[in-house]
Amino acid sequence: MAQNFYDKVAKKFGNYSNPARYIQEFTSGEPEKIFREKLLELSGKEKIILDAGCGDGRFTLKIVPYFKKVIGNDTSKLMLNAALKLQKEKEIKNVEFIGKNTRSLNYPENYFDIIYARRAVAIYPLFYKMLKPGGYFLSIDIGEKDTKDIKVVFGRGQNYGKWNNSVLEWNVEEAKNAGFEIVYAQDFYYNEFYLSFKDLDIFLQGVPIFEDYDSEKDRKYLEEYVNRFQTEKGINLPRHRVVLVAKKP
After folding, report:
1. How far is residue 200's CA from residue 205's CA, in Å, rounded to a whole number?
2. pLDDT tens digits for 93-135?
3. I want to staple 180 with a disulfide (CB 3.0 to 4.6 A). Which of 36, 60, 170, 175 is the partner?
4. How many domains are there within the chain?
5. What is the CATH number of the domain that holds 171?
6. For residue 77, which of 61, 101, 96, 99 has the smallest C-alpha distance?
7. What is the CA radius of gyration of the chain?
């Protein structure tokens, strides 16, 4: 269902961007910024890297100048079309986008210097095999408590009810079991404030919090959530991210 969902998002919005208006407040650091900093600390013009689950390729194309080559894979044809279109517009040559599931990648052992996954499934044994000795895997993942309150109101949602299953601990354990050494692992909690009911509605249409979200059918649930979580800053939506850096010895 995930592939169909992202195809639907790409068809609606053109890529993975979303026009919803909101502001963010961070108390312990901005996870996306920290992830990018960790990645670029490892950059090098001689390095070949893999973006596992690249989506519309926007992030991929932003970090390309710091590396020899970036390969991005994704299963959504429409997302890849958006990536290829953006690549052509920017006239960037050292990127290759491929339409494959991560599990079906068949690159040689010790091929990549770095592999990263942004809110995509981490397949640690495969990544360990494809990385060179001394290579790194980085991920930014969705934490178990992400958007918990709205899922409770709706009575469903992505990883519903698994509030106590630590995503960070799972990633650390899986990485270690595959042979990785943990360099960095951190939870990040922060808040997003949506400026209006319409903005939150638009946001929910473009993310897999509820893959079956319907603006009309779910209106009563969204109204209940807005009534409960409206603040002077906007409609509060608490977020949770996990950042991991692991090294192949």
Report:
1. 9
2. 999 999 999 999 999 999 999 999 999 989 999 999 999 999 9
3. 175
4. 1
5. 3.40.50.150
6. 99
7. 19
